[in-house]
Design a protein that fits this description.
Oligomer: single chain
Strand content: under 5%
Radius of gyration: 24 Å
Helix content: over 70%
Number of domains: 2
Length: 172
């Protein structure tokens, strides 16, 4: 029953994915196939019930919206997050080539200043700060990845920021 439904409605589902992704290829194709895979992994009786009640199309639309817009969905982790990293790296390379020498030196000087300030901090605060900024974490993702509470991580980051600010005020 599911195979027949997909065969008969594949083009409509593809159009739905194109609409949700605003026609971005290959995003719409990946989104469609991620959702179809999830559909096949779902409870067959429930899916067949949705087909009989003519509700599967709505269910698929909601699934596609959730997969595409959620930063914690399998689609996001598989397709969008790596693309975001590539775009950021590309932007950084272009910015580096477009900067003037004084801008590059100023940025390098700032980086050295922050690194020196971090060396004065306890190991835990220093490492939390580096992982947080170097890997682009939020407090939630860092907390989940490390098993350390958000409050503890927040306090470590605050201590780091305060130490860097104090060092700047002393030298500047």
């Amino acid at each position: 029953m599911l195979d027949k439904y997909i065969t008969n409605n594949y083009d409509r589902l593809g159009e739905m994915a194109r609409t949700i992704t605003r026609g971005r290829a290959p995003d719409w194709e990946e989104l469609l196939h991620t959702c179809l895979t999830a559909l096949y992994e779902s409870d067959r009786e429930r899916i067949e019930g949705l087909i009989e009640r003519r509700q599967l199309r709505y269910w698929m639309a909601r699934m596609m919206m959730n997969q595409y817009n959620s930063s914690t969905s399998p689609f996001h982790y598989t397709y969008r997050k790596p693309a975001e990293r590539i775009r950021k790296a590309h932007h950084d390379v272009v910015a580096w080539h477009e900067d003037t020498l004084p801008d590059k030196l100023a940025r390098e000087e700032l980086h050295t200043f922050v690194e020196e300030a971090l060396k004065e901090l306890p190991y835990f605060d220093r490492m939390v700060t580096r992982v947080y900024y170097d890997h682009g974490h939020s407090l939630n993702t860092l907390s989940k990845a490390t098993g350390i509470s958000r409050t503890t991580l927040f306090k470590a980051l605050k201590r780091s920021r305060d130490a860097i600010r104090r060092r700047y005020e002393r030298t500047g």
